[in-house]
Write a structure and sequence with these properties.
With about 500 residues, the chain is α+β, with helices and mostly antiparallel strands. The protein contains 15 helices and 21 strands. The mean pLDDT is about 90.
Length: about 500
C-alpha cells in the first residue's frame, strides 16, 4: 500500500532540502560509539564524566514544545528520549532538523546525558545528521497491522512493531545453536551436502523440480538433510556427522507443515535406534533447558513434561486400540472404509495401502500427549530402516511423539545393499503407479553400500520442534514465510 501522495511528496521535499543544504541523506559512514543499552547501563558514570557521546538509531516519535523538540531514538538494544534545545544547538542545525526531520528517519546525534525535571534519563543533543531519510512512516505501534496478509507481506514492519516476534526470531537462532553445540560436544562433525540432487532421497515427499542449464539435466531440491550423502560419509570412514540446513518439499501447507524449512539430521556409526532414542531424549532436554529454561510446556491442549519417563508407543498396537484395525492383516478396502467412518480426509492421487496406513496412524497420534517414542513401524512405510530382529514385518524406527505429533524421525539405518535394492524397486513400483511421494530409486547409493557401511543410527528433526515448544504454528515461527504475490490471484 502506497503512502498518501501528499505525505510522500512532503518527505521527498525534505530530502531535497537536505541535499540543498549540502548534506548527504544516505551517508555510508557513522561515528556511533555507544548503543542505547550502553548509555542506559552507564548513565550515571557518563553523566559524572560529562562525556559527549555519538549514538545512532531510528526516530520513533517527535513532539515539538516551544524551543524544544522531544523524540525517542531506538536501536536494536533499546530506546531513549532525546532532546533538541534551540538555545543550546547551533541555530542552522536546529532549523534544518525542524525543517527536514520525520518520524522513522535514521539519525546520528552527538549528545550528553541529561536528567529531565520529571527524572527521565535523556540525551541532550549538541549536533545531529541524517543517516537515512525514510520516505514512508512506520505504522503506529499501538494499532500496527490489522490485516493478517499485510503483516506477512511486510514482515519487516511486523518484526519492528512486534517485540514478541523479534524475540521468537532470536530464540530460534538460540535453538539451532544449542542443537549444534550439543552435537559437537558429543563428537559429531558438522558437514555440508548437496541441495541440488539428480535423485531425491531420505523421505517420502514430493520434490521441487528445476533444470540445470550448464549440465542440461533436470534436478531436484533436496527433501532431506542429505541422508544418503551423510551415509556415504559413513561409508567413507566418518563415524559421527550432522548437518543443519534448508530443505524443500512441494506439499500442502498446514500449521505444522511448510515447503521451505530448516532441518537437522545426524548419523552415528556403531549405534542402533536404542542408542539413538537415548541421545535424542537427552538432546530435547538439553535444548529445552538451554533455550526455554524449563522442561514443562503447554502445547496445544496438552501439558507436556519432558522430565517424565519417555514412553514407547507400538505402532500396530496403538492403531488397533484406537480404530480396531489390525494394519498387519487388513487389506486396502477395509482401511479405506475405516478412514471414511472416521471422516479422515486424504489425497486420493496415487493412494495405496502404505498411504492408507499412514493416514490411519496420523488420526491416532492426535490424542497422544507424550513425551515418548513411536516404535515398530511397518516395513512398507520405512524403506531405509533396518528390519526388527524379532519381527521382520516392522523396522527399527523411532519418532519422538509430543502433543499429538511426531517431532522427528530416526532409524537403525539399512546397510544391507541387497535388501536396499529390493526396497527401492518396491518404491519405484509405487511411483510408477502414481504415488509422487514414494522414494526414488538411488542405485548409486546402493553401490556405495556394497563397499560396506557399519551399523548406523540416523535421526532428523525440523523447526517444527521449535514451533511446538513455542506453542505456535511453524509458519508463525518463520522469519519470512512464503506468501502468494499480491498480483497473483
Amino acid at each position: 500500500m502506497l503512502p498518501k501522495a501528499s505525505e510522500y511528496q512532503d518527505r521527498i521535499k525534505k530530502l531535497t532540502e537536505l541535499k540543498k543544504a549540502g548534506f548527504n541523506p544516505y551517508p555510508a559512514k557513522t561515528n556511533k560509539d555507544f548503543s542505547v543499552r550502553q548509555v542506559l547501563d552507564d548513565f550515571q558514570s557518563l553523566t559524572q564524566a560529562k562525556k559527549i557521546i555519538n549514538i545512532a538509531g531510528r526516530l520513533r516519535s517527535l513532539r515539538l514544545h516551544g524551543n524544544l523538540a522531544f523524540g525517542d531514538l531506538e536501536d536494536a538494544t533499546g530506546r531513549i528520549q532525546i532532546i533538541f534545545n534551540k538555545k543550546i544547538m547551533n541555530e542552522a542545525s536546529y532549523k534544518l532538523f525542524i525543517k527536514t526531520i520525520d518520524v522513522s528517519d535514521f539519525i546520528e546525534i552527538s549528545a550528553k546525558t541529561f536528567i529531565t525535571k520529571t527524572g527521565q534519563n535523556s540525551l541532550e543533543v549538541g549536533d545531529w545528521r541524517m543517516l537515512a531519510k525514510a520516505l514512508r512512516q512506520i505504522p503506529d505501534e499501538h494499532f500496527g497491522f490489522k490485516d493478517e496478509e499485510e503483516r506477512l507481506r511486510k514482515r519487516y514492519l511486523d518484526i519492528l512493531l512486534n517485540k514478541d516476534l523479534r524475540a521468537t526470531i532470536e530464540k530460534k537462532a538460540k535453538f539451532w545453536q544449542s542443537v549444534r553445540e550439543f552435537l559437537i560436544a558429543k563428537g559429531f562433525q558438522e558437514v555440508e551436502t548437496p541441495v541440488l540432487e539428480t535423485t531425491t532421497g531420505g523421505a517420502d515427499a514430493r520434490p521441487f523440480a528445476t533444470h540445470h542449464n550448464a549440465l542440461d539435466i533436470d534436478v531436484y531440491l533436496r527433501i532431506s538433510m542429505g541422508e544418503l550423502w551423510q551415509k556415504r560419509l559413513i561409508v567413507a570412514g566418518f563415524e559421527k556427522t550432522f548437518e543443519i540446513g534448508r530443505q524443500f518439499r512441494n506439499e500442502g501447507m498446514s500449521p505444522e507443515h511448510l515447503q521451505d524449512y530448516t532441518q537437522m539430521e545426524f548419523y552415528w556409526a556403531y549405534a542402533d535406534y536404542e542408542k539413538g532414542m537415548e541421545l535424542v531424549e537427552e538432546l530435547f532436554k538439553h535444548v529445552a533447558k538451554k533455550v526455554f529454561g524449563t522442561l514443562k510446556f503447554k502445547i496445544k491442549n496438552f501439558e507436556v513434561d519432558l522430565e517424565k519417563k519417555w514412553e514407547r508407543y507400538d505402532y500396530v498396537t496403538v492403531v488397533k486400540e484406537k480404530t480396531g484395525v489390525d494394519i498387519m492383516q487388513a487389506q486396502l478396502p477395509e482401511i479405506e472404509q475405516k478412514l471414511k467412518e472416521l471422516k479422515i480426509d486424504y489425497d486420493k492421487k496415487g493412494f495405496n495401502i502404505t498411504r492408507a496406513i499412514d493416514n490411519l496412524w496420523k488420526y491416532c497420534r492426535k490424542s497422544i500427549a507424550g513425551p515418548g517414542f513411536l516404535i515398530n513401524v511397518p516395513v512398507a512405510i520405512s524403506p531405509l530402516a533396518k528390519a526388527s530382529e524379532n519381527n521382520t514385518q516392522t523396522v527399527q524406527r523411532f519418532q519422538p511423539v509430543i502433543a499429538g505429533s511426531e517431532l522427528g524421525n530416526g532409524y537403525s539405518e539399512l546397510n544391507d545393499p541387497i535388501d536396499q535394492r529390493l526396497r527401492f524397486a518396491e518404491q519405484q513400483k509405487l511411483r510408477d503407479a502414481g504415488d509422487e511421494e514414494a522414494q526414488m530409486a538411488d542405485y548409486d547409493f546402493v553401490e556405495a553400500l556394497e563397499y560396506g557401511m557399519p551399523p548406523t543410527c540416523g535421526f532428523g528433526m525440523s523447526e517444527r520442534v521449535f514451533s511446538f515448544l513455542m506453542n505456535k504454528t511453524v509458519r508463525d515461527c518463520q522469519t519470512f514465510p512464503l506468501i502468494r504475490p499480491k498480483h497473483i490471484k
